[in-house]
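Q: Structure tokens for this one, please.
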Amino acid sequence: MTRGISRAAALVLTCSAATGFAAAQGQAGDILPYDKPDAVEAGRAVYQGHCASCHGSDLQGEPDWQIRDSEGYLPAPPLDGTGHTWHHPDTQLLEVVRAGVAAVAGNGYQSRMAGFSGVLSEQEMREALAYIKSRWPAQIIARHNRINGQGGHAHD
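A: Here is the predicted structure, written as tokens:
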């Protein structure tokens, strides 16, 4: 069942609109300023104010995040590098934050994560994701950077 959920999570974060956004930006990915201390600090504040209530103050996610609850929703996954977030390029992560999981996944997928477009600026969304990425272990950041360079997502 975990394998099926991982595939579903990959589907949730796959979005062709994100690819179009990257082309408009003139880059294949790697659009998060995770190596810029000012952006990371600003992102920490955005994360704590808008994301931590579900994903946890330490990015740990909710317990049993791979098991649907009694209403059929998956709990908020960890964003600390132990979950699946890093398997997806920056553009897809940004689109999920922008539009929400259900909008990106389509096909009637249900999620409690709404989009933050109209709530957060584009810069704030990038900074929040930069903060998240800055907290990943170095080897996960390196793998994520390779994923950005390939314009795809990991399958391992």
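A few notes: The helical segments are 2-13, 16-25, 37-50, 52-55, 90-99, 101-105, 122-134, 138-150. The chain is about 50% helix and 0% strand.
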